Amino acid sequence: FASSSRLAQLNRERDAEIERRLRPQLPSSLPPEDEQIVRQSLNNRGFLAKAAREQVSAQDLSRLRPSQWLNDEIINFYGALISERAAKFEAESAEKNTSAVNGHSKDQGKSKSTGDDGNPWKVHIFNTFFMSKLQELGYDKARLNKWTKKIDIFGKDLVLIPCNLGNSHWTCAAINFRQKRIEYYDSMGTDRPSIRQALRTYLEKEHMDKKSSPFDFDGWVDYFGEDGPQQENGYDCGVFVCQTMENLSRGVSLPFDFTQKNMSYLRRRMILEITNEKLPLQRP
Hints:
Elements (H helix, E strand, L loop, with lengths): L3 H19 L9 H11 L5 E4 L2 E4 H4 L10 H30 L21 E3 L4 H7 L21 E8 L3 E8 L4 E5 L7 H19 L9 E4 L12 H13 L13 H14 L8
Parallel strand pairs: 3-4, 6-7
Antiparallel strand pairs: 1-2, 4-5, 5-6
Helix pairs in contact: 2-8, 4-7
């Protein structure tokens, strides 16, 4: 007989599959006009895209061809696109709310994201070097307080951290302030509690540095996304991380809206988004 834990796992998988089927499915390919843009970008030896402080060259972009492992440049650039989209949505929402208060809008109260409508959350994304510095050097020695001189992470809904594990695998960690969770996602299904513990230590030290008081962990829990989409090869982990960040940044909970079967399409779409230097407000 199956153990109770195995039955619980089977029930979770069943529920996740039902919810996944109820959600809109991703397309299998880009529209012809967008596919033409993708081909032009891949054939452009002088290609260069910029977002915030990040940039992607033609050589970097080629990492999004089939069966290629993504590098720091692609993942950091995609993170910058997510951050810019979140900041733009936040600014536009604030402007709409101000207009509503002043009596110039009929949409008072409608511009605020509820967290389950697919609109961008208030997000900060650390780059791919953050976790290694935190774990190898520690908060003080790595001077991580300097990384947030102009940012109050405690005013965000979510902090995302792409993790490079020994230059052999990409995973994603998150500090979810809305749900009071320190989260970890791995497309190969391995939990690493040490990463969540490192983030707890980070929160303690960052709060003391910026707020001069201990961080209140009351109600906070650790969370491992064991039912997250799993890769079926050794090279798509970077795409899984980018799409995990994209889903989380819009408040989408597991099951996410992608699986291994979507990787070919998502690689092409990421090329399009990098070329356009922006992400759509919601999934196409």
